Amino acid sequence: MSQQATEQVHGHYIGGEWTDGDGATFESENPATGETLATFRRGTGADVDAALEVAESAFPAWRNLSYIDRAEYLWDIYHELRDRHEELGEVVTKECGKEISEGKADVTEAWHMVEWAAGNARHPHGDVVPSEVAGKDSYMRRKPRGVVGCITPWNFPVAIPFWHMAIALVEGNTVVWKPAEQTPWCGQIIAEMFEDAGIPDGVFNMVQGFGDAGAAITDDERVDTVLFTGSAEVGHEIGDKVGGEPGKLAACEMGGKNGIVITEEADMDTAVHAAIMSSFKTTGQRCVSSERLIVHEDVYDEFKARFVDVAEAVAVGDPLAADTFMGPAIEADHVEKIREYNDLAREEGADVLVDRFELEDSEIPDGHEGGHWVGPFVYEIDYEPDLRCLNEECFGPHVALLEYSGDVERAVEIHNATPYGLAGAIISEDYRQLNYFRDHAEVGLAYANLPCIGAEVQLPFGGVKKSGNGYPSAREAIEAVTERTAWTMNNADEIEMAQGLSADI
Ligand code: UN1
C-alpha cells in the first residue's frame, strides 16, 4: 500500500495470503482533517480462528530454524523501515496525528527494536550453570512458547508492534497480531513488509479489527503468550483472564498518571522544558505522558509563571507542518473524554491557569476544520490524595500543578500516591535528591533532569502497580515469549546425586 489513500477494501494477512473475510468494513481517518484515508475489513472470530490455525501449524518448522536464520527476515524489514523512513513517518502522522518529527521517530524506534531483536540472535542465549556434582553439566536453554498474540495501540502504530513481534519471532514463536482499529493503514504496511521479506507462510499473521477480534485472540487456548500494550482497563482484563490460566502468559503494559517532581534545587530552564515535553508532546497521548507536576513552594511561583507562558504559546496545528508542537487528539470520542477530565478537575476545585481546550478558529489551519482539536489545559489544585483528577489517566494535554513544602521525601510521597506506576522524573541539581527519587519512586521508568517520555528500546519498558504486569518489550519480553529448560547432563560413568542424596539401589 502506498502513501496514497485508495478506494480498495483492505483485508487481513493470514497464512501468507491476503484474505477478505466477511466482517463489516471500517475506515481509517486522518484525525487532523477528519478525512477518510482507507477502508479496511473488520476481523471476525472466523478470521482470528483461521490465523491461529496457520500460526499453530507454522510453529514447528519456524522454531527449528536457527536464531540467525529467523533474524534474517527481520533484517530485511529493518532495511525497508530505514529506506522508507520519510514516507512511513508521514503515514504515521496522517493516521494518528502526531507531529511529523514524532511520526518519523515512531519509525526510527521500530527499526531500533528490530535491530536489537535481530542483533540479539548472534548473542549467547541461556546460561551455563555450575553443578555441585563434579561430573555434571547444567545449562539453562530457552525455547519458544508457540503462538504469541500481539495487541498494540494506535499511539505508536509502528514502533510498538515491533517491540512485540520482532522479539517473539526471533525467539522462534509465530505471531497473530491485531493492530489498533485507529491505525489499520500502518498495520497494512507492516504486513506488506513481512510479505516482502518472504517470511514463511503462517509465521506472521495480521487480523485487522476492534476489541472483539482482540478478545478472540486472547481467549483462544491456542495462544501461549499475549503481549499487550494499551489501556489499563483492557490490560487488566487480559492479565486476569490470560494470566490466570495455567500454561499461559500475559505481559501487559498499560497507562500511567505520571508525575514530575521539581524540587527547590531545580534548574528552571530544565524544569520548564522537561515538563512541557512530558505533558504536551504527542498531545499528552503517550502512556508515559505527565499529568502531574509536583513543585516545591520555593520555586512554585517562578515555575508556574514560566510553564503557563509556554503552555499558552506552544503551537497546536497541522501535524505535517514543521513548526507544529502538538497535533490533534486521535478521535472525536477522545476529545470528549479529555473534556470530561477537564470538567472533573474544575468540579474538584481546580484553579484553571491555561484553558486552550477549545482552540480559537484562527488557530485551526485551513482545510483542518474537521480535525479533533484540543490544546493544553493546565490547572493548580490543593493537593488531596483522593481527588479523581489526580488519580485517573486522562491521556491528553491535561496537567495539574501541585505545590509541596518540605523535603524530597514528601514530594516522592505525593508522586507515588496514585494507583499507577509507569514513568516519572525529578528535576534537581542535588544528587541526593536524585538518588532518593531513583530508589523510592514507584515507577518502571525513572528520569533525572529529563522529560519522563522518550525511553530507548534496549531498556525494560513497563510499569508497576496498575501500570502493568510484565514487559512486552526488549530484554524482558524474551521472558514472556520463551520457556526455560534447565538441562543437566551426566559426564561420569556413575549416577551421583546432588544434596548428598543416596544413589544406592
Ligand atoms: C507510550 O507512551 O505509549 O518512552 C509508549 C517513550 C516511547 C514509547 C512510549 N519510547 O516515550
UniProtKB/TrEMBL annotation:
Annotated segments matching region Disordered: 1-22
Alphabetically ordered keywords of this record: NAD, Oxidoreductase
SUPFAM superfamilies noted in UniProt: ALDH-like
InterPro entries reported for this sequence: Ald_DH/histidinol_DH, Ald_DH_C, Ald_DH_N, Aldehyde_DH_dom, ALDH7A1-like
Gene Ontology molecular functions: oxidoreductase activity
Superkingdom to which the source organism belongs: Archaea
Residue ranges of domain Aldehyde dehydrogenase in the record: 18-484
Keyword Oxidoreductase set for record: yes
SUBUNIT field: Homotetramer.
UniProt similarity note: Belongs to the aldehyde dehydrogenase family.
Protein name per the record: Aldehyde dehydrogenase family protein
